Amino acid sequence: MSSDLESRTRFEPAEVEQRVMARWLESGLFHPEPEGTPDENYSIAIPPPNVTGALHMGHALNGTIQDCLVRLARMEGRRTKWILGTDHAGIATQKQVEQLLASEGTSRQEIGREAFVERVWQWREQYGRTIVEQFKRLGASVDYDDERFTLDEHYADAVLRVFVALYEKGLIYRDHRIVNWDPGLRTSISDLEVEDREVTDTLYSIAYPLEGGGEIVIATVRPETMLADTAIAVNPGDERYTGLVGRTAILPLVGRRLPIIADEYVKTDFGTGALKITPGHDPNDFEIGRRHGLEEITVIGEDGRMTAEAGEFAGLTVAEARDRIVEALDAEGRIRHREAYTHTVPFSHRSGERVEPLISLQWFMRMEPLAQPAIQAVKDGRVRFVPERWERVYLQWMEEIRPWCISRQLWWGHQIPVWYRGEDQSEVYCGIEPPEGEGWVRDPDVLDTWFSSALWPFATLGWPDETPALRAFYPTDVLSTARDIIFLWVARMIMMGLEFCGEVPFKDVYIHSVIQAPDGRRMSKSLGTGIDPLDVIEEHGADATRFGLLAMSSTQDVRYSAEKVEQGQRLANKLWNASRFVLLRVGEGVEAAPQPQTIEDRWILSRLERAKRGTREAIEAFEFHRAALGLYDFVFEELCDRYIELVKPRLHDERVQATLLHVLRETVAMAHPVIPFVTEEIWSYLPGAEGLIAGARYPQPDDRWLDPEAEAAIARQFEAVQAVRAWRQAVGAPPGPRLPAQVSGDFDGILDGILLLARLELRDGDAADATPVPGVPGGAISILPNEHVDLEAHARRLAEQRRTLEAEIRRAEGKLANEGFVAKAPAEVVQAERDKLERLRRELAEL
Prior knowledge:
There is one protein chain. By secondary structure, the protein is an alpha/beta fold. The protein is built from 28 helices and 29 strands. The strands form 10 sheets. A 4-stranded antiparallel beta sheet has the order 6-5-14-16. It has a 4-stranded mixed beta sheet with strand order 10-11-9-12. Helix 2 (13-27) packs across helix 23 (676-683), helix 17 packs across helix 18 (542-552) and helix 20 (599-620) packs parallel to helix 22 (654-671). The protein is globular and about 115 Å long. The mean pLDDT is 92.
């Protein structure tokens, strides 16, 4: 065996990982030829990370999950493509470059749109591949030779074609509707870019006078928006207001006449039960307003200041206007009550400013016609959610789907392919190519990033062209993603895939857990709770990081566990050391082949068979923690701590070497999807192993080696070993020396292993002097007097413990026999005494 291996006494991830990744990339394994059909092949489209991004723990977990699936499929002989690419990330990227320009003393407005977009492309060329390179550190076997970008030329063409097709179908239209408006970035934003924060505001109860006398009191935390009120609504079942429906209230400070309407949306238990309706500044009020045909007034502008519609308050910030309006209401005696009110308020994740719901002229997409086929695809099982509970969440949202605002007031992104002509923009043209003639002006807005992302599974494969890649790898097999983008991305991909390709884009949707900080808070740089996976890889290695993340993963959110990563590092080291031990002892010309000679050989082959099946089944069932931890148990407990120890006395036998080499080879291949670097490195030393393990076949099931009889026998063997080890610890015997023992009973085929692992040796002697070991199944093991154990002292200790327990039991029994104690003491004290007595009796019985 190689002297190189002899000198490598430890597995060094930093030395191995870069070299192994280079071998993988040179092999072309990650870049399959586009042949065959989707049923024969296997594909996953990576959720495209933002071009601005760096690897965080969510990327690391999801990347490991996908790589585990992809490596298993590749080893099963399927042509496997893991589609790679990045998202142009409109808002995030534009913000980065705007900050860069500001540091240079200029702005996008100063340099103009064309120059700004050119600067963003330059920025992308410089920084945009950071996260792709970081995926290599993780061991991700994506198709690096076919990287896509949501703004590359072919992808951009696909996006425009989809827009035009949906526009011509009447599903895309322009309208004034309420949107999430970010006053800091001056654009509409998606729900994902909105974060709810808990805020304590003042809840004001304000009296609105009624025409003909009287008043109606409403409660609001936003008195500044009352200037845009166009109605007051009450619940039709609220008897307090039955007589007021149909009457008219007068808006304080403004004098506008407000109809009092009935609507089921109004909650009778919030505030006074009467709700001011402001269609221009609240999404729920907007829907009420559309149902009742109410006027839509806007008093807060896109810059976050009050508009001319706000009258004397025009030009003020929202906060300034609120203070001035409250002062004016106080002056008129309209405020009936104030109280602190804690509630959630939307803020922009990008700019940090409070989101203003505003009515804005935007491009929208009608979703209902697209949603129905996507609902049916999940109901009939063509798309399956794992865990299953997310199916209900998906269906509920889809069945209540609303129009989607697809336009953004940005410069970086897919510019909307619509042109206008005429002073009132009455002439409209939509097309992939610009219109002919003079006077046309293109719509300045760009599409929501999620619009282009919705095409990801098929546009990355060359659609709208009927490419070989599209024929070979669409639909994909699995989408692994987080729960927060089920609606923003997963649902939209299903809708778009069905609409433009006639098939669902993937068969399984795995919603992975969110890894929280160790204290249960969310991981965040700003909170100081973030953990950089690259730091973890640097300290423990990629295999350890991957194992730890998979072992942590669950159907629920989980706290980050450094212990699980350390467990992964122990596994990599244990497998390396065990492999090195075996390989340095295997003779020249010995080939891996199962040649069982003893019951221990039959046992390890049977346990290996179950481990192979269990690991594969766990990965295929998305139970990655079971795959990782099961692998750990097999390598540590069964292969290393039992079998290798059991066969050490027989290692000179080439049949044992062949069996051990077979078990090692299969174990390394079985472990590869979870810990690819160490297994690839071990594979390079295995006799007869050809090529890369990444391209080898996953160990196939072989029923010949399933042996329940051998498993039962070795289970009994290890039970006996554990009993002896427990006895040795109890009597204070040192672990090293072999103790003289006598044995009786049925230990056929397993006695040698018991003596070896329990460190015993058979001796003649007077059985009357021997001490029996309790808990040995199917027979008896007794230890003879010896210099290593003072059995008389042990007997004295047991007797003293027995006397102490008996005395404590008598005291407890006496206490509970005292009727005064039982009657007068608190019930919990009496129960504690009963529990104590039960525990003492158990301890005495065990003794």
